[in-house]
Each structure stands twice: as C-alpha cells, then as structure tokens.
Amino acid sequence: MPEISAIQFSRNFDSEIERCIRNHEALKVRREKGEGFVVIGESDWKSIEETLYLNQFPGLIASIREAAEESLSEGTPLEDIEW
Q1: Total-model pTM
Q2: What angle is formed at CA 54 by the lines to CA 71 and CA 23, rounded to 5 degrees?
Q3: How many structural domains is the chain composed of?
Q4: What confidence score (pLDDT) does residue 42 get?
Q5: CA distance 8 to 50
Q6: Cβ(4)–Cβ(29) below 8 Å
C-alpha cells in the first residue's frame, strides 16, 4: 500500500483521491502526531464490507468456492430443492 505524509496528501488531495479510486488502491496517510489513516474508494470499501459480512458465517466461503468448481451438470436441479 502506498504511503504519503499528511502534508503531501493535503497538497495533492484531488489527484491522490482520484488515484485511489481509479487504481482500486488504498493509500496510507502518515501524520506527524497521532494515528495515521487510510483512504479507500467507496466501491472498494463496499467490497470489504461484503467480505467481512460473509466471513461471519463459518464455512460459507469454502462452500461458495466448492460450488464454483462444480460443473452445472453435477449440481442439484432447482426443482429438487425444498424451499
């Protein structure tokens, strides 16, 4: 993750924001005093939130990966699923 000082960030605010969004890349901003912060585009943040949400359910990610590797002919027909 690229890192810049808060002074550099404030001088180049618009271009740094645009770069984060365009490249889907987080930017770490260092401060002289206190904790730094990270800048990330909204769509990337939404993806992170979705991933965090899905990871709350044990085994779900492994199940999705397994299903993705399975051919459609190996799956269960929709009409055989009890809703």
Answers
A1: 0.69
A2: 90
A3: 2
A4: 97
A5: 31
A6: yes
